[in-house]
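Hi R.,

Here's the chain you asked about this morning:
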Amino acid sequence: MDLEKYRMLFVDETADHLAEMSRALAAVERGDEDASDERAIDTLFRMAHSIKGMAASLDYDAVSTLAHRLEDWLEPARSSGTIPDDGVQLVYEIIGALENMVAVVGAEAVPSARNDLIARLAGEAPPDPAPDENTPDGIAPAGTAQLASEVAAPPLSRSVRVRAEAVDRFLAAVGELMQRHAQLESLHRASPFWEFRREFGEEIDGMERAIRELRRRALDIRTTPVRRVFERLPRLASELAHSLGKRVRVDLVGEEVEADRAVLDHLDDPLLHLLRNAVDHGIEAPHVREASGKPAVGTIRLESARVGSSIHLRIQDDGAGIDAEKVRRRAVESGLLPQLVAEDLPLERIGELLFEPGMSTREEVSEVSGRGVGLDAVKSKIEALGGTISLSTNDDGGMTFDIDLPSMVALQRVLILQLSGERVALPAARVEAVLEVSEGTIERVGDEAFFMWKDEPIPLLDLGERVQLPSAGPRHKGNVVLTEARGFRMGLHVDRAIADYEVFVREVPSALAALRPLAGVANLPDGVPVFLLEPGALVEDFV
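And the predicted structure, written out as tokens:
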């Protein structure tokens, strides 16, 4: 039997089972009223049994042995209906180890046995884990919370597995069909024959209805619940908290909200970073929390909701929050702000400083995380998806991160701009207003320019110069597109704002992928391709 063709099927199916185990174990740990421990433990047992059988049939001995020992260990728990607290942590570690092993199988390597975990399941002192010589580059062996968290999130369970490339090609074909329809409609409006126009128009209307339905069905193929990125976070938070001597629970809300797979695939790292920040730096040790009147167990709440055509994510903890004075001091020490500016900085702007590169309130460097360390990378990834992120301090002293993202990146509403005879696009969701600003209202100091809007000085940048399409002379006329990038509002001077369209956005060709401002390519109704620009990358050297 050719086992190779079953390898990826094993990887997909096992990832689904492990995701189900993570959800069941999180329910046991939280003590959910609507999910009995007996049912959750039975789910854990069944999933371990299935993984054991699949791995054994394909000769993945390390996987089948660990799953088998876990199955044996869970048998008494099925009878008693409970898992002790230290047992919950052990099962979390085993799930993480199995995820790593499956990732190794997916990389066409042979996973090593985890004799340390097998010994712990048997109640014995674990031996020192042997180095995993078969681990491929980029995949760390399981065993610690940090290493387990580096494994890619498992795919969502679905009835029919379709390659992402096939879906993208299908959506590209739908986009071309929409473009052809728009061209046909333009020809119809230009027809001089009234009777022909009427009959032809009826057919075009019917075609448009069919295309809209096809588009809706096509977009459904790309969507998946945010459970895809949420489901493993409680386990990773528990593992990390345990290693730091802390206790934490993660509450998930809105897991059923659906979004584009392309969006969710890029959320793993940002959400993991925010979660690790909350556990390591936000949530206090149990004795510290109890001394301040808080429960010993910290709470991290992850929420998702659909808001119009966007998806809103919120990551909230009840930890220590932001020390505003420490942030001000560090901003001055690192040269981000002068002393006088830092002293007068309002509280709502304090959080924005933590997104600056290298900004941290940690007294010592942590191997896990630190408020501000890497938050600039999180912000860049969110903005690259056409989204925004902000943070604030809760009334109870904790932190809240709010993330807004387009629920569908393949289909976006964009604003078309004209620059020196060329057309470019900006995500309409990132545009606050389109203004007419006369030269007399612009203040210029050297190479910098500002204008006043609602009593606020707004930096003005020439978008043409930013994309190397400078005009023949100064732009004394035109429009200013008001947008926000990296927490700062600014104006982009353009020749003209033409119109907004709903378009299918494709990836930038590989030859141009290194150009950071380019976020995608789309075809306008007249068939002309335009580049979609990412505002954050356009102005990163300015802010």
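The two ends are 60 Å apart (CA to CA).

Let me know if you need anything else.
M.
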